[in-house]
## 1
Amino acid sequence: MKFSYNWLKETLGFELSPQELAEGLTTVGFPVESIVPMAPEITGVVVAEILEVKPHPNADRLSLTKISDGAEVYAVVCGAHNIAPGDKVPLAKLGAVLPDNFKIKRSKIRGEESEGMLCSADELKLALVQDSDGILQLPMAAELGQDINNYLGLDDVILDIELTANRGDLLSLRGLAAEIGAFLGQPFSLERPEDVQGGEFGFPTTIETDTCSCYTGRLIKGVKVAPSPLWLQLRLLACGMRPVNNIVDIANLVMLEWGQPLHTFDADKLPGQEITVRQALATETMVTLDGKERQLDPSMLLITSGGRPVTIAGVMGSEDSEVEANTTNVLVESAVFDALSIRRTAKELGISSEAGSRFEKGVDPAVTQIASQRATGLISQLAGGEVGKFSRAGDINASVRLISVRMEDITGLLGTSIPQEQAIQILDNLGLQVEAQGDSLRVHVPSRRRDLVIWQDIAEEIGRLYGFNNIPASLPNGSLTLGVRNANQRLEWQVRELLAGYGLYEVVPYSFISPEMEEKSWVEHGVEISNPLTREASVMRSSMLPSLLETVTYNFSHGIDSVAIFEVGNVFKAEPGIPLPSQTQRLAGAMAGKEPRHWQQPGVLYDFFAVKGVVQQVLDALGIEADIRQEPHRQLHPGRCAAVYAGGVCLGHFGQVHPAIVANWKLDVEILIFDFDFLALSHNSRQIGQFTPPSRYPSVRRDLAVEANVEIGAGTLMDIIREAGGELLEDMECFDVYTGGNLESQSKSLAFSLTFRHPQQTLKEKDVQKLVDAIIRRLEESGARLRG
Amino acid sequence: MKEKLKALQAQGERAIAAAESLAALEETRLCYLGKKGELTVVLRQMGSLPPQERPLMGKLANEVRDTLETALAKARQGLAQEEQEQKLAQEKVDISLPGRRPLSGAVHPLSLTRRRIEDIFLGMGFTIEEGPEIETDYYNFVALNLPKHHPARDMQDTFYIDGETVLRTHTSPVQVRTMEKMCPAPLKMICPGKVYRKDDDSTHSPMFFQVEGMVIDKGITLADLKGTLLLFAKEMFGPQQKLRLRPSFFPFTEPSAEVDILCTACNGQGCRMCGDTGWLEILGAGMVHPKVLEMSGYDSSRVSGFAFGMGIDRVAMLYYGVTDIRFLYQNDLRTLKQFQGGLS
């Protein structure tokens, strides 16, 4: 909230600088976000009196003036027409500097010397409202020669105070001064205005709903709508509000003083001579002040007159009942509306206003009538008119709440013992009435402090003003507890470090993607967000693929030609009949472009075997005995895809992204991906394997070159070799794959290097030969044959 | 014969000195000392000498053999060294050429930061809890003392799936779920994870990471909260760290506080980063509101608790000097490559 520093200072009479005040407010919980001057810097402008106004001899639109600052008389050429001898005006003397660094110099205007400039409000960059255009007219009482900054109080600064949602009471001088008074040790309460004697006229008022507990209306007849006096306009400006006219400005001023929003109607424009507060009908509409036609609904609270809505209560008035220049009879509304109802309505209509923001945090019923008295008093004083009676419906329910709290409980919550006398003093400074009763405090909470409900609230008030920073630091007592990651959490970090070690970068894309990304990637529709920021981020993804493809695309488009990435993240799917969509943790990654190259090695591109290698390495590291099967997958190249199984469960798949999908993303590169169900990986992971001591005996190596039909997979051949080789076959490596050349068109040649070793003895040549023969026999049975 | 031997020795020594390679030297050796070598030839003539001269000549011949063998060994060593040197000189590489680096990727800076935070709390005996990112309105708000239409709901601009389902705006719902699971036993947990708010600028991302923590037990106080967070701050940001608690308001804690640490850039001196205050806000915290305890089944007259929460992104940005939060979600490999060092 924006508030005038000078106003607080005048009210409380403190000596704090704006910075010191800001620091104090921060300490009790209300940081000041900014301190800005209420007006731009002006120098050399003083209050002066016009002595003489004569036409300029050479220009019809200009006049020559003689003007006095009390000490000297200056000749000033002026182009405005709202001046006459005797007027007090701001004079920018030679050497003065106006906003935007506008310097006043001696000049000749159409042959006439001008020793300065008379200023308009615009030239001083003040958003003041005036009777007529032209030079700013100052009150007759203004003292000649006084600096304009001092005279108008332009040296004030506007504090922008960050208030918490529970402290609606601070949205006013009344509350702010009380809060500042509390930390200054100077209890404050705003003085009640004297009420003007009212006449016996008014509009009958009825409440037909329970979302308005109290409504007061007071009629003032015969007012003259005009710009407010300067002091009132300047005060509003110093609180960041714009002056409009005396009636509206008074309502705003009183709201700033008391925290009670007021509404003013042109009584003659009301359809009836009465006010009824009720819920809207589903069929009703109203044109609000901003000229928009609003569709109303029964959740909205209305002020009506003659059966027609004239205000959406606490939110916005109607266009056809507002106070205007020709208004003569004014109805001042001061009421208590249900906070929730106002909040809901304001939100639904998308209207935020000073009044609404106060109502939705709750206003103090104790000041409903006081605020109205203050406003009607000021109106009759500044705009004239005859004040009527209070027409009130509902009750003023400003009861005091009693909260008892034991000192022991306060100590138990804060962790430090604050002496009872000090606690009482703090509460007293806050304007709360306290009685000590043994070890307990009985606190009388006025209706102003709606936030204080339970004893913990009182403990907080005491701690807050005692200073949280004066509370010592300790550590919780209690038994030792085990702080460890569970198996799944450990695996998450293991996988991250493994993959980073294999050259992949972890990425963290947004969980929300666009429907277009889903479509381009051929994935199922995820979970829609009903109020997304943008369409690009409107669906909680059902698959990791679109995010991976987007990241690959982003990097390629930024000139990076080698991308290897992975992500551990969640995907979502709406489940009919279950309140929450399902959430599945996935481990996925993508590789595309050039494999990192070296001058000794030729450059190669990431391909199927690059991703397969990573997958195999991870599976081995996690101790997962997996079965890799050729299995089609919707998003993968039909000839370059595989599924990973363990314990009969599919853990995930990997392979080359279908070229048609890649084309949808406007890329021309092979993209390899893997995508695993993280929990399935976790369940099948055997982190601690059985140790086998290495054999002391020498190994025997044999190489086999096998020719087979291309349809027979290398895996099949390797399975045969492994089975026939038995336990003595320690290791097998496929070191060459060859097609074409002198081979038949449907043949391929594979070369294997076999290592045999016995755990307890040196292998004999003939035993190895027996095994090799057996292997060859089995290979031949399956249609392969030995080459050369 | 004596002269012959002398001449042979001199001739042999010259030949050895003249040999330019180990191979040539071996040839020289065979030529003089081999089975068919010149010395052998001379020795074969020993038989023709008078018996009394034989011992003397034998001795002389052995001396010649020894001399030549010594010379051979010396020459061999010299040549071997020379050849070795030549070989080494030929093997010289341009050491300024790039090395064959093992592949290295990196863990994301947000993960690194999260890990660091987790490890500190694990060390204090906290467990790590997780929960759904798409949550019910009840767990995200109601159970945290934020009934429908509560003004404080505005503090967290929410993404909705439908009227009753939201993208969690904080990881607090995990605290509620953990309380329900643990009640009435004490608990000490942190819950890191992704959260979502409708906000998008240089310091706010619509998706970001939070870690919240909670301790519930008998006799937990605000002072305990301060002590725990101070321990964390010192470990995370350095032993010089101090905390500043500013009273604040959260519906789920009472009392509530915003927690500042000494500015990590200026150490409290005041600079541009901290807006000259010397402090940086990184945490929200407080004592668990009795209503929140009660809603999850705890008896608020018997136990109390504290709770805190911080943005992992904010910590990462401070830690690594990242100026715009959006860099963290761009996944630009040029950014990610800077984190190959992993945990520090």
Note: DSSP finds twelve helices and ten strands in chain B.
## 2
Amino acid sequence: MTGSGPSAKARGMTAPAPLSFQDMILKLHAYWSGQGCLILQPYDMRMGAGTFHTATTLRALGPEPWNAAFVQPCRRPTDGRYGENPNRLQHYYQYQVILKPSPDDLQERYLQSLSAIGIDPLLHDIRFVEDDWESPTLGAWGLGWEVWCDGMEVTQFTYFQQMGGFDCKPVAGELTYGLERLALYIQGRDSVYDLAFNTAGVSYGDVFLENEREMSRWNFEVADTDTLFDAFRKAAAECENCLNAELPIPGYEQAIEASHLFNLLQARGVISVQERASYIGRVRDLARGSCEAWIAKNAEGWQARFPGWTA
Amino acid sequence: MDREERRGLAGALSRVDGVSDFLLELLSEEIPARMQAGAREELERLFIRALGDAGVVVDGLTVWSTPRRLALVARGLPARTAAVREEIKGPRDNAPEQALAGFLRKTGLAREDLVARDGVLFAVIEKPGRPLADLLAKTIPPLIRRFAWPKSMRWGAASRGTDSLRWVRPLQGIVALLDGEVVDFTVAGIAAGRMTRGHRFHAPGAISIASPSSYAAQLRAAHVLVDHAERTAIIRDGARAAAAREGLALVEDEGLVVENAGLSEWPVPLLGRFDPAFLEVPAEVIQLTARINQKYFICRDASGALASAFVCTANIMASDGGAVIVEGNRKVLAARLSDARFFWQQDRRHTLAVHAARLSRITFHEKLGTLADKVERVAKLAEWLAREGIVPNCDPALARQAAELCKADLVTEMVGEFPELQGLMGGYYARAEGLPAEVADAICDHYKPVGQGDAVPTAPVTVAVSLADKLDNITHFFLIDEAPTGSKDPFALRRTALGIISLVLHNKLRFRMEVALIQACGDDLEKFEKVFFGELEKRLGAFFADRLKVQQREAGVRHDLIDAVFALGGEDDLVRLLARVRALQSFIATPDGTNLLAGYKRAANMLKKEGFASPLLHTGGRGAEGASPPPASGSGEVAHEPAEIALIVALDEAAPKAEAAVAAEDFEGAMTALAALRAPIDTFFDQVTVNDPDPAKRAARLGLLDRFRAAVHKVADFSLIEG
């Protein structure tokens, strides 16, 4: 697959070179930093989405303002395609922004961030298409859209209504950008592996193609399922151990771990339809328990600073 | 020019009459496309009711929607509401203190304000007329708070508390203008005014609306077509034209037109092409991918084959004419199609038999085992239906093979991604691996018929698998007490029964339902007994009778006649049953039929009144078949009147004739035999007094009427026939 883009040549002559993958991230950091966000670093655990980062999950609870942005590597074992599909990866990056309470001009701020990375809304068709977000494993849901750029979903835009089974008071706005997809647009490429990672000739494929091949094999074919089942049980038990000790953060980390192990077991095809629901329920209980413990630990301080606030 | 003048004049006149126009616009973040039609109805309903409560009749009402706004223009409203006098009935004037206090609290009046009439107290509330602007300022805020969305949300700083406004997505602004004036109110911190916004990208700045009548034109100038009907027309015609320019025909899809109109304020249909290599993927898959995931139309070429083209609908007049947008959409579709092709290739790496082996890991129902268990039951039953000749000309081995593979596609990647392709994909995969065409067709079509109007399979192997699958569902869900109740039918058993009835009648399959249901129980003796001896058969019989009535309603078959035949019991060969019902319906429409029915009812009433215990009749069970034949004639101990003798003779002739005709499935013949009883029964009632003082005579005559009734019951239980 080679980069196409009818305007690639023309652009080379008339416009500055499109942003590399890493420059795009830097632009987003600069933009959201300017919007008053903390620029955080990725959580150092395997997780299915940026929403799992404690900066989103736990911080979405409680009355305190919280504005943060960060890149989170995401693992979706079942999405692996052995490096053969130009758009599907079992490991990719999300750019995550959380703003609590959701500002009244969140849509405008988001659209300006697209301009900041070079997407012209009079050249590209930007749309807000209904997509109610739900994470059964986090016991969370919200209303919002998937944002389409020329028919491609580039961002998940959500107003969190509940997290861990608790009402979000106030509601947080969450933006989740699919960085690879955005880069495909900005760079006019057909395959994620052809993306320019930097401006010195290193491609996304140079960095990740072999990872995709090996990880797909491991996820789908090799991973030892007994080990995974065992690890799932241990993570669940450890979560409970932490919660008994009133340690919501380490407890929540074990919930993240269990969630990822469940995803791996799914990819290995060893969880039946009926079992699936009970595994999801198990992970949800762990996440919910962690959120509950987090609220319990903080409620007093929150109520002191925000009189009248209740969980 | 002439018309302009007249409009100006009319405008001037309405000012004189004090007639006003009102505009309400609720600007929000993007409203889901599927909710917009309902939202328009809700706004219209609430507005008419709110003004109606104040005595204002609204007739010139227009409601529009776009993704970002709901708008309402009401024309010709009165400038003031009329004065209203309302009486509320209260307690009696001697009612206890508490009741009176409650009433006063409710009405906000004092005791001396109440009026007594006939010992009852009334509160009289005079509402003076008031300016319409006041009414609107008072009624619109609760209308907004009460607005019912299918799903609504909280947002922003206000959501820190518990009672912030809920809206479908954050509400951004309110325009409320009565003629040129702002109607003054505030909802959830948003003050109504005249400022709104145009198209998100073409006209992002604020716009000041002058009046209700200028609203649509001002928005049009800001690249917003506020009238949803206009946008649907642009998409419908534009998509068609875009296809036609390429020599293609658009695959029309009105649902998609409406959805796209709900996603754009300035729709621009654009045609794009995708790599023809993707056409190796089944057409249905391409269509679903394009439609569901991307909201694109697809096209066919002159030969009717799927073309490698799509039509998407943009929301902007792009600065480059749309080339970049089309290219972007092409890429997205290519990614989707390459996923579909991946599934298509991946799934075919294994045979359906290999896929089917994985069904043992999937629970069908916790009380009914795995899908593999179900498939084995269906395979046995399909084979049996073929071997017994119930489905004629059907090879039992092919029926078994098709049944064994019919659910295999449920574990394929493609059906995992597109569940609506179940069956269809199995058929494709079966053909791809070279299975017999009958088997592939049976896998493809065995869910059919899905609803009334759906094609009913006729290929023998397909019929056998489809029937076996459905019989298995009905039998086993009834056995675990999951029969439908009221509005609850979680396993769609009513639809399944309709499917069975359609298969049986359409293909004229001859078998007793009871036998098939017993067979469907399989080897389980306990279940077998439950069916054979228990209540189950009766319940299933009634269930099928009900479904048959529904199924035959459109064909004009009377439901009471179906009951009349079903009630005899033992008749559960649906083809025969329906033939019998049809013959009965024709007969009942003739003068002979009508009179015979009248005679029957008279006889039945008389027997009932006399409390006659029939030695002949056992309704509603198999027993009737085994009843001993009635005595051939009068015993001679009692003297008979001529009309009695005539009836005896007629019965002696008609009863065996009717019975024989029924046995030979000659239902017209059976009706003709019954018709012969009409004259004798009429004469009997004319000339014979049943309640003779002589108890022997009376008994003999009642016995004769009972014989007449029994003879009629050879054909149907006439007591259930209406009219």
Note: Residues 1-14 of chain A have pLDDT under 50 and may be disordered.
